[in-house]
Amino acid sequence: MAAGPEPELERVARSLVRAASLWLGCLLLLLGRWDPALAAAAAVSSSSAGRSSPQHPLLPQPQPPPGATVRTFTPFYFAVEPMDTLSVRGSSVILNCSAYSEPSPKIEWKKDGTFLNLVSDDRRQLLSDGSLLINSVVHSKHNKPDEGYYQCVATVESLGTIVSRTAKLTVAGLPRFASQPESSSVFVGNSAVLNCEVNADLIQFVRWEKDRQPLVLDDRVIKLPNGALVISNVTERDGGLYRCIIESGGPPKYSEEAELKVLPDLESPSNLVFLSQPSPLTRVIGQSAVLPCIASGVPIPVIRWTRNEEALSPESSERLMLLAGSNLEISDLTEEDAGTYACVADNGNETIEAQAELTVQVSPEFLKQPANIYAHESMDIVFECEVTGKPMPTVKWVKNGDMVIPSDYFKIIKEHNLQVLGLVKSDEGFYQCIAENDVGNSQAGAQLIILDHAPATTGPLPSAPRDVVASLVSTRFIKLTWRTPASDPHGDNLTYSVFYTKEGINRERIENTSHPGEMQVTIQNLMPETVYVFRVVAQNRHGSGERSLPLRVETQPEVQLPGPAPNIRAYASSPTSITVTWETPLSGNGEIQNYKLYYMEKGADNEQDVDVGSRSYTINGLKKYTEYSFRVVAYNKHGPGVSTQDVVVRTLSDVPSAAPQNLSLEVRNSKSIVIHWQPPPAGSQNGQITGYKIRYRKSSRKSDVTESVGGTQLFQIIEGLDRGTEYNFRVAALTVNGTGPATDWMSAETFESDLDETRVPEVPSSLHVRPLITSIVVSWTPPENQNIVVRGYAIGYGLGSPHAQTIKVDYKQRYYTIENLDPSSHYVITLKAFNNVGEGIPLYESAVTRPHSVPDPTPMMPPVGVQASILSHDTIRITWADNSLPKHQKITDSRYYTVRWKTNIPANTKYKTANATTLSYLVTGLKPNTLYEFSVMVTKGRRSSTWSMTAHGTTFELVPTSPPKDVTVVSKEGKPRTIIVNWQPPSEANGKVTGYIIYYSTDVNAEIHDWVIEPVVGNRLTHQIQELTLDTPYYFKIQARNSKGMGPMSEAVQFRTPKADSSDKMPNDQASGSSGKGSRPPDTGSDYKPPMSGSNSPHGSPTSPLDSNMLLVIIVSIGVITIVVVVIIAVFCTRRTTSHQKKKRAACKSVNGSHKYKGNSKDVKPPDLWIHHERLELKPIDKSPDPNPIMTDTPIPRNSQDITPVDNSMDSNIHQRRNSYRGHESEDSMSTLAGRRGMRPKMMMPFDSQPPQQSVRNTPSTDTLPASSSQTCCTDHPDPEGAPSSSYLASAQEEGSGPNLPTAHVRPSHPLKSFAVPAVPPPGPPTYDPALPSTPLLSQQATNHHLHSVKTASIGTLGRSRPPMPVIVPSAPDVQETTRMLDDSESSYEPDELTKEMAHLEGLMKDLNAITTA
Known about the structure:
The chain is mainly beta.
């Protein structure tokens, strides 16, 4: 019977449990979160490491239902995790690992992500506690099997797998020195540094020896973290030989020995220098940091340290220590130790400073660790994980030792949290959050248990809901409706759960109705064009009923555009940059081509965008400490997709980038000064201003004192100063990041004695007023007695009385503007100085405000008729009319005009302006030959017109003011005697370039008038010069010519012609002399081929050889024809004896009695054939050469070696015939001035008995003309066509023209005999083109006909003395004389002249016969 009460108690207990279960179910129904499977469960959680596990805020944490099998969370964690280890080659290493669990876990190891096979490994073995032992570490340059990252993996078959943190095993490298100690000397008392640079992993194995004995380190002798040895306060005993040794397990490695010499104390000062300076350093929190700073100098310097410009005191801090007197060691680092450290060395004579940044990093730490979770299948859960560290750690998730890859059902939300959707049984296990940054990594885990649904209680369960349909189907959501089950037609107390999954996926999700009786639900966040399967289950108080039949629904296809990019995150990476990351859209609708990142400053409206090809981007150049919003839009081939939501992040703060503003100093008395300032501009504060730092010092000292002011205080009183002393002050703003730039030093001097404030100030020394329309500007000077304190000034003013209003201003102010006054009103103003005692004596002044001016309603009209008149190359006169003036255009008011002008070259030229009070203005200082535009505006009072219509004007030309540029000389290929000169136009041509003149010489120091000249007509930039001497240096200069004259010469350019070559011999290389009349020409060699008669090109190119018999026939035939022609002309001329010939000869003799003939080309035709006896070279005369040749060649011998002088025994006739002319060259050579300038005056220069090569200078001379020059006289007739081809030119005509040209080179005529009359007529008078004014080669401006004799010089014999050679330069005839000569155009030779010619021809025939006989 004793057992009777137990069943009764059991029934009571079960009744209580059912009542509690029903109450909990009703409560969950009211909250809308009821799940029949959880109706009998309560939230239970536990932590594997004794940590509290907060419940999920949306899901009640289930516990095993009564009567069910109890499943609790199993403690499973690492008691010991491997740590980073440094080892040496050949040693043994243990990586510790120990995991706790019931039952005991299985331990494995991974290296670099791959499991190690420890069973068959003879060097690596697993210890009993799970640690890894590595025997005899292997490490070489090309084989490093043991170095890497190791991870311990613990597994319990029935629970799951966890992984430890990752540990790095580093093996010290082979001992080698990057730098070795060097011998040095040091003065007694100074410091010495001996470097020994090795790899960072070998530093701990470095030690030092002195004189081959181990060196004992102490407070004075230390080893820096980089291996260097520092000896402070050196004594004579420190001298010796030092070396460093690396002992890393193998044989020791010794450095070279360095001798340290200790010198006696230096009495004279020496410069202060750093032997070692601090460098940027990065350390981990809790470690130690050493900042080296060693300075040397005489006197011995004192070292002090600052951090963020705040003085450090190692004596008062347990964590700060000075090693060897100057090196700062900071132990047990904290985040607050980070900042800018400055080492200041001061020896009284000078101060030097070195700075370095110390960065303190923090390994990852968990602010919130994942918590264990109970859940049912189809539920959604979230593991939370919050981490911190410096730099900010990245987070990844691991499930049972395998990396969790984000997908549709596993998502990373809120940066670090893991969300699992639609739980299935296989999701059960251990989940770990692994945080990692540059310092290291850390892990924290939690367990997920999937509970089975509790069995239903006794009672009827609802049947399946009826008529489940999709009432609304969209692209991303579906709305389901249904009817109540048949078992419960009313269904008011029923709740429903909708289970849904993608077709073909076994992971099912659940969506519950929000309140009992509701028979519809909307499923969100679906994928477009995807088939989903839905089932609906009804629940009552007894449990879940039957499931409805599966409903298959396909979402609508979406426009083929990407969806929003999920998990967009933004974080500030620096004060000026923000990094934004996101993931690939779940609905990409095809390949994502790129992303567009939109961002803008918060509060602004100018959104900017940037195209991004990856899923992260860092935007630089942002404002410091400023909020920005970001959003991302994905693009595919169809266009932009759905934008993400905006994320807002603020850039990091930084030190202020500007100094405080408006710094002012107020001397209060003899011992204190008040400093006032304003904060830095808002855009440069870069954060919250936390305070200000004031530095001040005496002007005579370099060391300063620092005071800090907290908060927003904008002034500070500096007390305890010396009397009558000048102090310098500067202020800098502070943020949490550090100190910004300081203001410039500002000085103020304390009073010698305190000012008197026992009485009121005296009267101000002066008061001035300046009335305006509605205001009066008041200015004053302080009282003369400066010994009385003035705190400020009181200004009183009013209409007729100064007592109406009073304004007080600061004592430093010296002017004030009284505003809001009435126009045309009389005001009385008073000024008084005051202090704490009272106001002083007033000073009075009165003023009448100006009347209110009514603006002129008529607008100003712009000037009209603007004209530009060009006056010179740099001056233009601008004139205009003003329609607002009376008809007589007289200015009677105060108006003025503004003229502006500019040129469009270059295009960005700015306007220049000038004011004028008349209707014209002279603009000067313009550029020559430049187009300018001008406009004018008128101003009257405060009114101005618009700019007038523009007028244009081009300034006149001016001679070039700069030489041609880039002058180069190159040899012509295949012709070593020919060179090509190239150049570029002058930069300041000041007009159209009409030609160039090339000067060349073999002597760069010769006078410029001794240089040979070559003219170039037009704007060509290249020119050929032939017949130069081989292997000879030449110097070239060029000057440009425009219509105004010649510009400056370029610098001389040197060029050496190539050396002689047998294949380069030219006909002109042969000697030009002969022994006498009828003599054979010199031997030209068997290879010589005389040119054909048709070859008269300036290049003198040889033609094909002729048969000697054929040549004789041609010569004889031409001779006979010529004689017949001459006889006919003689007969015709003898029949004409008119008075014209006599007048003509008289005029010729009166003008130039000793001249040769001046005849028109019509009077006497030159012979058609020249015969070079020595070469048998036939050259007919081209009657009409091209006046504008394309290329200019100059076939002239260039020195005296090219032509052998004619034998002096030669008679004068032969001299005349051989040396006077080379008509074919004068006309055919393209380098002649006649070929260039058809309208130039011509000149004739007979050279009767001179050497063949001459240069002509236009230097006037009084030398008498030789008698031989009187043999020729002719009439001047102008050429009908003005072309130089109609006459023979003297050699001197080949030279260019220019103002005061210094030289004229005379081409040497080849020794020849001619059928022509020896007197060759020059052309008629010159005609000038007014559009192209030019200057002839030689001076021809004389108005009379006096002769100008010209001295000569030879280019081939520069530096030698040569006899002067007369050159006749005829002046241009008068107009009347020209007309008279035109009238005589029908003239012919006299009989006596013909007789002479006939005799001459007979002589020529004899020569010809002699040649043919030979």
